[in-house]
Amino acid sequence: MTRVLVIEDEPQIVRALVINLKARKYEVDAAQDGASALELAAARHPDVVVLDLGLPDMDGVEVIRGLRGWTRVPILVLSARHSSDEKVEALDAGADDYVTKPFGMDELLARLRAAVRRAEPPGGGEEDVIVETGTFTVDLAAKKVHRDGADVRLTPTEWHLLEVLVRNSGRLVSQKQLLQEVWGPSYGTETNYLRVYMAQLRRKLEADPSHPKHFITEPGMGYRFER
Ligand code: CA
């Protein structure tokens, strides 16, 4: 079943989208502002996002940037304004397509289907969903970590942090990027959160947590995952 995340603050539009999507057997989650949308996206891993650019708490473009830090989920933007600048900015930030309000439901559904179709990899299944290290194995599709033949229990926050790092394997991920992707856009400077959660991940996953081989600190910069 295809899961849609609708991010929109106008109740009539939300209602119309939810009714029409559910009638076509989509599973629907809805958020009315950017902060709860980013949390819902992290918790529910939608297959496609429908995003209104005019949200009460933040610019929709910020939501796109927040999502793009860790996911390639297709994003279909709803733009009320006629300014093409806004659409260009949204596309530059990583949106896949846009529909201008007021939109026809048939058009929106057609764009949605096209966005989902484009996102499906040709061979089926996500590439590189199993990441193995000498100590543990991460299954990104199943959202599971195994170590010594057993599942490692991670909290949703630990999992999200792990996922962002693993998806950027070998690359430095800045403190700000990690904080904004895992905790939300207003957490860019709370580096103490990262220290606490990285210590937990190392305790659960590193052979020697005090000499990490997989979760590497780049002092003052961020963190890097190495296999
Ligand atoms: Ca709006």
From TrEMBL:
GO biological process: positive regulation of DNA-templated transcription
Residues annotated with 4-aspartylphosphate modification: D52
Matching InterPro entries: CheY-like_superfamily, OmpR/PhoB-type_DNA-bd, Sig_transdc_resp-reg_receiver, WalR-like, WH-like_DNA-bd_sf
An annotated Gene Ontology molecular function: phosphorelay response regulator activity
Subcellular localization(s) per the UniProt record: Cytoplasm
Domain Response regulatory, first and last residues per copy: 3-116
SUPFAM superfamilies with a match to the protein in the record: CheY-like
GO cellular component: cytosol; protein-DNA complex
Domain of life of the native organism: Bacteria
Protein keywords: Cytoplasm, DNA-binding, Phosphoprotein, Transcription, Transcription regulation, Two-component regulatory system
Xref: Pfam families: Response_reg, Trans_reg_C
Predominant place of localization: cytoplasm
Presence of keyword DNA-binding: yes
Function comment: Member of the two-component regulatory system KdpD/KdpE involved in the regulation of the kdp operon. Upon phosphorylation by KdpD, functions as a transcription regulator by direct binding to promoter regions of target genes to positively regulate their expression.
Protein name (database record): Transcriptional regulatory protein KdpE
Origin species: Streptomyces cupreus
